[in-house]
Specification:
This protein is of the alpha+beta class. About 55% of the residues lie in helices and about 10% in strands. Among the domains are: about 110 residues, Leucine-rich Repeat Variant; about 170 residues, Alpha Horseshoe (Leucine-rich Repeat Variant); about 170 residues, Gamma-adaptin ear (GAE) domain (Immunoglobulin-like, Sandwich), CATH 2.60.40.1230. The protein is built from 35 helices and eleven strands.
């Protein structure tokens, strides 16, 4: 059976089972023919084996027949044998070593086509051993007088040098002679070999750089030559050779000014004279642009290359436009000004129907944004955001918010832009964007009135955008009094207290509002009870809060219960709901560049847990960011915990209202929820852990200069008194006698104190005299603390404490800064 008959039979099969039957039957016939040594049909049978192999069936049993064909003296047999060798075998097959001697004989054969077959086989499947054995023959054939053999030998040399890089120095002198060839095929393969050598070993680049003038002359002859029918492709002379020369020039000119200067003129000629209306010309122009951007080219030549890419952007072929956008993304870091000239064309690519082009255009625009064009590009992106597809909107909104935060010209424009983004794509905006906006507004007193009015107007238009609703409710809760009074606002609209409550009620009762957003609304209503003055409005807000005490959502139910119980203690409610203080960032010193503003803030703080300001002026992050580990060798007490325990799960102090003298139903759930001023926040502060030590600090050292006793902490009936004494001989040492008193009707069990200090302060903390503080001032617990300020007189003594205890079986925790009297 001939090969064509086998193909017809396979194609006529209706099922896979029929095909397997045909292949099985023919494989048996081929085996029988091989056993019978029917030499006249061997090449036909091996050809059928190749077809069977291509169909996915096993043909390993016929590998030896390939070697028999290669050993034949007939060209037709050798052709099929070498083809089967390259398809059926690979370099890992041991049987391949049997054919090495036949390859060597064929490389020395007088017939050029047989030599070409052997070179083709060596270049495709030779292992390192075969490549090393046949390298002398391949090197010899590089100098053959036959251009066909030289071309094949150059391609084969690539495989040999990949397998045996140590033979490279033997081939380099022969390769140089290939550039003097007139045959374009030999030139193409020779330059391909040079490119491979330069990529393999950078030492070869220095050797080949002396050939740059020769390469430039060759490229110039191709660009300026007339019509040559044997090399013409769509009106361009040998574009394959031009592309290879440009690739080699790119490697030789990179990092070398002298070589780059020689190339500048010819590269400008290629970029100017090549026809860009055909795909062949575009391929050459693309390689030319890549070369210009890689070498040390002149600025004018770089601009010319960017203009070529700009022409690509107006091409109708999406592949060419994608290549242009991808290349411009790499070029923008080298010459941003040249790319800026094509900004409008790049923005138009955002409207393309191809999503891959839209994504590349967005990445490029993101790289183009700077302080000078942020307003223009942000406006373009905002216009496109409203009409963009859903799957593309999140990426676009994220990048738009990022460039706004990075390059905004002023804070008001920053607020306006982010609010517009949240109004259009609020469901696709990351929570980090909301946190950054809240941080900006909270840290800028001049933005309080402006931002709350902008957000109120946006919410009245559409409150279904999740992130917009959350940020808007947070700002209304914090600065609702400024919105109603019109203080510092743009006075675009007049807002009453009733309008604000109606808006929040609408958001709260909407079935489309998620539970998290409702928690923001409840917190905002609670804050507004201390900011609005109309009693009827405050009563209405209390009813809205109380209506959620039986909500199915546990978080919302807990907040509503806690806030409702907080009304029982009017004396502390105003302080608990006080406005978050403006965050003051330290100004950079004269020799330091301004540091960027922090990008993140813990999201749970938006839910209304206000952080009281302290006299020390340092936040928890400021203090714990510079903590030290005491160097004094002491023994840690058993009741001390690591800093992870001290700070775990705390992002802002938890507010606990003091227990009333005679609470109504105080032993039930109402009393429990009354203890918590707000829901606990899950965010954790991570900081290095100081070593807590407990030496004996009452070793009889004379202490002088006693200072007045002061109250370091007082809350929920717990009072912490600090009795401070200084050592006259060493003013950096401070001894503190701590006294704990409990005025509430319930004892504080499991009492524990933890301490955190800056790096320049060392401390020793002795164990407390007990872990139970008796109720109603009937007893006290004492503890001693020794502090050493290593920068006495330069920096003040700072201390942060965390107090843990249990009340009626329920845990409580307090975190506070301790401000020492002046001079300590």
């Amino acid at each position: 059976m001939r090969l064509r008959d086998l193909i017809k039979q396979v194609r006529s099969c209706k099922t896979a089972a029929e095909e397997r039957e045909v292949i099985s039957k023919e494989s048996a016939n081929i085996r029988s023919s091989f056993k019978a040594e029917e030499n006249e049909y061997r090449h036909r049978n091996v050809a059928k084996l190749l077809y069977i192999h291509m169909l996915g069936y096993s043909t390993a049993w016929g590998q030896m027949e390939c070697i028999k064909l290669i050993a034949s003296n007939f060209y037709s047999d050798k052709r099929i044998g070498y083809l089967a060798l390259m398809i059926l075998l690979d370099e890992k097959q041991e049987v391949l070593t049997l054919v090495t001697n036949h390859m060597k004989n064929d490389l020395n054969h007088p017939g050029q086509f047989i030599v070409g077959l052997a070179l083709c086989a060596v270049g495709n499947i030779s292992s390192s051993g075969i490549a090393r054995d046949l390298a002398p023959e391949v090197k010899k054939l590089l100098g053959s007088s036959n251009p066909y053999i030289r071309k094949k030998a150059a391609l084969c040399a690539i495989r040999v040098l990949r397998k045996c890089p140590d033979l490279m120095e033997n081939f380099v002198p022969r390769i140089r002679a290939l550039l003097s060839e007139r045959n374009h095929g030999v030139l193409l393969t020779g330059i391909t070999l040079m490119v491979e050598l330069c990529k393999t070993d950078s030492v070869n680049i220095e050797f080949f750089r002396r050939l740059v003038p020769t390469l430039v002359r060759t490229l110039k002859s191709l660009v300026t030559s007339g019509y040559a029918p044997e090399y013409d492709v769509s009106g361009v002379t040998d574009p394959f050779l031009q592309v290879k020369i440009l690739q080699l020039l790119r490697l030789l000119g990179k990092g070398d000014q002298e070589a780059s200067d020689i190339m500048n003129d010819i590269l400008a000629s290629v970029a100017t004279n090549t026809d860009h209306s055909r795909n062949v010309g575009n391929a050459i122009l693309y390689e030319c642009v890549q070369t210009v951007m890689a070498i040390e080219a002149e600025s004018g030549l770089r601009v010319l290359a960017v203009n070529v890419l700009g022409r690509f952007l107006s091409n109708k072929d999406n592949n060419i436009r994608y290549v242009a956008l991808n290349t411009l993304s790499k070029v923008v870091s080298l010459d941003a000004e040249a790319v800026q000239r094509h900004r409008n064309t790049i923005v138009d690519c955002l409207k393309d129907t191809d999503v891959s082009i839209r994504k590349r255009a967005l990445d490029l625009i993101y790289a183009l944004v700077n302080e000078s064009n942020i307003k223009v590009l942000a406006g373009e992106l905002l216009n496109y955001l409203s009409g963009s597809s859903i799957d593309f909107r999140q990426d676009l909104a994220t990048k738009l918010c990022n460039v706004t935060e990075k390059y905004s010209p002023n804070k008001r424009w920053h607020v306006d832009t982010i609010v517009k983004v949240m109004s259009v794509a609020g469901q696709h905006v990351d929570d980090e964007v909301a946190n950054n906006l809240v941080t900006l507004v909270a840290s800028s007193a001049e933005l309080h009135s402006y931002a709350v009015q902008k957000l109120y107007i946006a919410l009245t238009t559409d409150f279904q955008q999740k992130v917009l609703a959350q940020v808007g409710c947070w700002c209304i809760g914090e600065f609702g009094d400024l919105l109603v009074s019109g203080t510092g606002t743009e006075q675009e609209i007049t807002v009453t207290e009733n309008d604000v409550v109606e808006l929040l009620e609408k958001i709260l009762k909407s079935p489309l509002t998620p539970s998290v957003t409702k928690a923001y609304v409840v917190t905002a209503l609670m804050k507004l009870t201390s900011r609005f003055r109309d009693g009827s409005i405050v009563g209405r807000m209390r009813e809205l809060i109380a209506s959620n005490r039986t909500n199915m959502d546990v978080e919302l139910q807990q907040r509503a219960n806690e806030y409702t119980n907080l009304f029982q203690w009017e004396n502390i409610r105003i302080k608990v709901l006080d406005r978050i203080p403006v965050v003051e960032r330290p100004a950079p010193s004269s020799n330091e560049s301004p540091k960027p503003q922090p990008k993140q803030v813990a999201a749970p703080n938006l839910l209304g847990v206000s952080t009281p300001s302290t006299g020390g002026g340092l936040s928890l992050d400021d203090l714990l960011g510079g903590m030290s580990t005491p160097s004094m060798p002491t023994t840690a007490p058993t009741n001390m915990a690591s800093l992870d325990d001290l700070l775990g799960g705390i992002s802002s102090p938890m507010t606990h209202a003091p227990a009333p003298t005679a609470p109504s139903g105080g032993e039930g759930l109402e009393f429990l929820l009354g203890l918590g001023g707000s829901a606990p926040t899950p965010a954790a502060v991570t900081a290095p852990a100081p070593t807590m030590t407990a030496p004996s600090v009452s070793g009889g050292r004379p202490l002088d200069g006693p200072l007045p006793t002061f109250t370091a902490f007082e809350k929920n009936g717990l009072r912490v008194l600090f009795d401070v004494a200084k050592q006259a001989a060493n003013p950096s040492n401070t001894l503190v006698n701590i006294t704990y008193v409990n005025s509430s009707p319930s004892p504080f069990n499991g009492f524990d104190l933890k301490v955190a200090v800056p790096k320049y302060v060392k401390f020793q903390l002795a164990p407390a005299s007990g872990n139970v503080i008796p109720p109603s001032n009937s007893g006290r617990v004492t503890q001693q603390l020794k502090l050493i300020n290593t920068l006495q007189g330069e920096k003040p003594l700072l201390l942060k404490v965390k107090i843990d205890y249990q009340v009626d079986g329920f845990p409580a925790s307090e975190l506070s800064d301790v401000t020492f009297p002046q001079g300590v």
